Amino acid sequence: MDVMTMMVIAGCILSAGVVYVVLKVDHSARAQTLQDEILALQTEAADQKKRLQDCTRYSDYVAQLPTLLADKFKAPAVKLSREMTHAECIVKEKYKLRADVVIVSKYQVDFAFMLDANALSVAAHTNGLALKVSRPTLAAGEPALKLLSQQVISANAVSDDRALLAEADANFRTSVRTLARNLVASEQVLALCRLRVAEAARDALAVQPGVRQVPALFVDFK
Known about the structure:
This protein has 222 residues and is an alpha+beta fold. Helices cover 50% and strands 26% of the residues.
């Protein structure tokens, strides 16, 4: 075999080797790109699955809101405390007194309003969730009273004022019950109850696993 032939054969072998190396490198690059694409798809699929699971859990939490709020509303949802002064005028003829009597009493009056979480309904809203709850009721049926001070005023001393004091107290309690009935339907108490429901619902949802953001809550009464 002459030298020229050997050089031609060597050149062919070298060219084949170069082509093989180029093809191998190109194949490796494509394989790596394909692996990267597969990994990206797997990651996206895992993220979508997690988001779907979070949405499912969130829907469950929303459905369970009445249960989640039940413990929070065992205590009064709204409390109002006022100091009130009552003046009772008693004419002398009623108790055969020597002079008219004025009884001035000072009370601390506590109004407590309850909400029923079991009556809560939840529905989708354009911008969040719509919550509807039954109107508040007065705890124990009437406000709690605490007598702070009392004074009996008369031109003549009253030897036995027990009946007079009892009458003054009874009349004040009647007037306070009327005030409580007006308060329970007042916009002040209703606004406080709306706020209390929204705060409680927001807090209950925010601590649930997988909940990243609590939507806007719109509260109204049935």
